[in-house]
Amino acid sequence: MPKTDLLQGTLDLLILKILTLAPNHGWGISHRIRQISRDGLNASQGSLYPALHRLELNGDVASEMTASENNRRARVYRLTPAGRRRLENETASWEQFALSIRRILQAG
C-alpha cells in the first residue's frame, strides 16, 4: 500500500493520539505514525512542524527544549488537558465520519 499524505485535520488528530503514548519530538512523532500505520501513513516535515506549531498555539500541546538521547537539543511535545479533550471529541467525529463512508462503500 502506498504511503498516504495526510489532510491537516487528520494529522492533528494523529499527533494528539501519538502524544498520548508519551511526550516526543517531531521526528519521533513522524516515526511513530509510520510505525503504527505499518508504513501506510507518512507525515512529512513540511506538514508536521506547522501542525505542531498550530497545536501549540491552540493550547493542545506544550513543548520544551531538552537534551536528546545523543546529547543534541530537541523540542519535546506533550499533550495538554485541552489537547486530550480535543482528541476525545475529534476521535468521536472521525469514527462517525468513517462509519458514514463505510455505509456508502458497502451500499448495494
What does this structure look like?
With 108 residues, this protein is an alpha+beta fold. The protein has a single domain (8-105), classed as Winged helix-like DNA-binding domain superfamily/Winged helix DNA-binding domain (Arc Repressor Mutant, subunit A). The chain has four helices and three strands, in the order H-E-H-H-E-E-H. The chain has helices at residues 8-21, 26-36, 45-57, 81-105; strands at residues 24-25, 61-67, 73-79. Strands 1-3-2 form a three-stranded antiparallel β-sheet. The chain starts with 7 loop residues before the first helix and ends with a helix.
Helix count from the secondary structure assignment: 4
Radius of gyration: 15 Å
Low-confidence stretches: 1-5
Shape: globular
Q: What is the count of distinct domains?
A: 1
Task: Kindly report how far apart the N and C termini lie.
Answer: 26 Å
CATH topology: Arc Repressor Mutant, subunit A
Write a concise keyword list for the protein shown above:
about 110 residues; single chain; disordered N terminus; 3-stranded antiparallel beta sheet; alpha+beta; Arc Repressor Mutant, subunit A; globular
Task: Offer a quick outline of the entry.
With 108 residues, the chain is α+β, with helices and mostly antiparallel strands. The chain has helices at residues 8-21, 26-36, 45-57, 81-105, and strands at residues 24-25, 61-67, 73-79. The chain is built from four helices and three strands.
